Amino acid sequence: MTDCLFCKIVAGEVPADIVAQTEETVAFRDIAPQAPTHVLVVPRAHHEDVGALASAEPALLGRLFAAAADVARIEGLDGGYRLLTNTGRDAGQTVSHVHVHVLGGRPLGALA
Ligand code: AMP
């Protein structure tokens, strides 16, 4: 999708601090980290949100979460981590290309 920020990061047209890649996914550091480790994991293919991805390619959704778990291992989040995916306006989704936030590196507290 031509005007999608994360498609541009996947294509290398917008710079990002990439921490891991697979044939189907790219993981890069969030530009405004909310925890010591804050990485976004996206599929290379454009899907608007997690529901759209689950409908179109459910197996890829599994591999996206597997890639997120790999990022947690690579980043040494031995104490635990949080995977988060916002969907829609009320959840605060600001980029309409499904992404999993990998958060960790300190006690994260309750999900408020
Ligand atoms: P969400 O609010 O769940 O849609 O998450 C979008 C995330 O993308 C936010 O946490 C932003 O800080 C992050 N973000 C926006 N632009 C960039 C960028 N150019 N590189 C890395 N992360 C970004």
Automatic annotation (TrEMBL):
InterPro entries: Histidine_triad_CS, Histidine_triad_HIT, HIT-like, HIT-like_sf
Gene3D superfamilies in alphabetical order: HIT-like
Cleavable signal peptide: none
Domain HIT: 5-112
Active site residues of this protein: H99 (tele-amp-histidine intermediate)
Domain of life: Bacteria
GO molecular function annotations of the record: catalytic activity
Segments carrying motif Histidine triad motif: 97-101
UniProt cross-references to PANTHER family, sorted A to Z: HISTIDINE TRIAD HIT PROTEIN (PTHR23089)
Protein name: HIT domain-containing protein
Source species: uncultured Frankineae bacterium
